[in-house]
Amino acid sequence: MKIGNIDLGERPVMLAPMEDVTDVSFRQICREQGADMVYTEFVSADAVIRNIDSTLRKMVINPGERPAAIQIYGREVGPMVEAAKIAEAAKPEVLDINFGCPVKKVAHKGAGAGMLRNVPLMLEITREVVKAVKLPVTVKTRLGWDCNNKIIVDLAEQLQDCGIQALTIHGRTRSQMYNGEADWTLIGEVKNNPRMTIPIIGNGDITTPEKLAEYYDRYGVDGIMVGRASIGAPWIFREMKQYLLTGKIPEISRHEKMTLLRRQIDESIDRIDEYRGILHIRRHLAATPLLKGIKNFRDTRIAMLRANTKEELTAILDHIENDIFPALNA
Predict the structure, then answer these.
(1) Which residues, listed in sequence order, are joined to residue 141 by a DSSP beta bridge?
(2) Percentage with pLDDT > 90 across the chain
(3) Which residues contact 30 (CB under 8 A, 6 or more apart)?
(4) Is the distance from CB of 294 to CB of 304 less than 8 angstroms?
């Protein structure tokens, strides 16, 4: 699959953009584990043009995480064009436009998935951003606003006509948020539309290597984007890539997985500070499948998620690795 001149190979597996998740450290780890391309947290066009430091930091891309895309969102043409030019200066391989974020503070202000209720403005923004930058521009969106307005088949053609070079579709409507099961049938319909010539990337509920391979075969998409299943489990990309190549899931030890989580903690603290770095990483610790299903683990889990210092958190992880994990193998 190619986005512009960027060759991601056959059946690429990509890290989806996720707010408060896909920071620079996590992106690089996911690339090392096999993700073929990674996306930044989405950045507000308004915040970019106001030079908000916390937003500009989200656009810093390290050499080890490339190819990488910066994703921007907004609701007005002018700020989106200006933000696109600023993002281009950060030298990502791709510039992605977010027309899919369903959260109320974004969508109900007309940005993100809110654009699904104002298609003419969505198309105008897309055309103007494409004209403003030399980078390949892509779009990520949803099936439609709600179950009565699943417009993606026609919308995909319109977005392609605006000059985008790939389209990612999340298999839910905005009103579904992240509830229910993602419906890939319309994603497949877009891919099988003979008028579509750009790559179609599917997204939604890809949680295992087996499901990844099944959906590639069933829907024929050019790429698949993995989001929530990677939180606290960056090694899922190694599992998925190896399964596509060999039909087997590689064995990754608990120690190796814990080492990756510890690295995330260290890099989060180094990047921010001890207290806020630990707060940031709690989402990964809470979600990681490495620590799920362990009997009598409740008190340890609570202590881990309440730890406020690196010393305290390290002691708890040492206890898990040295005492709890060996007991599981006994």
Answers:
(1) 99, 169
(2) 93
(3) 15, 38, 230, 234, 237
(4) no
DSSP 58: T
Tokens of 10: 């056959």
Q: Which residues contact 276 (CB under 8 A, 6 or more apart)?
A: none
First-to-final CA distance of the chain? 46
> pLDDT tens digits, residue range 104-117?
889 988 899 999 99
Angle formed at CA 152 by CA 167 and CA 35, multiple of 5 degrees: 30
Average pLDDT (199-210) is 98
Give yes or no for a contact between 118 and 111, defined as CB atoms under 8 angstroms apart.
no
For 93, phi then psi, to 5°, come to -75, -30
Find, among 267, 280, 284, 305, the residue nearest to 231 by Cα.
284
Structural domain spans, the chain? 2-242, 254-329
Tokens of 49: 């043009």
Token look-up 């709890």 returns 324
Q: Which residue has the tokens 């001890």?
A: 274
Q: Give the C-alpha distances (Å, rounded to integers) separating 28 from 9, 35, 168, 211, 277.
A: 19, 9, 21, 24, 17
Cβ(138)–Cβ(162) below 8 Å: no
Q: Per the residue annotation, which of 30, 101, 147, 162 is the catalytic one? A: 101
Active-site residue flag, 101: yes
Q: Which fold has domain 2-242?
A: TIM Barrel (3.20.20)
* Chain centre to alpha carbon of residue 220: 21
Q: Give the tokens for residue 174.
A: 């905005």
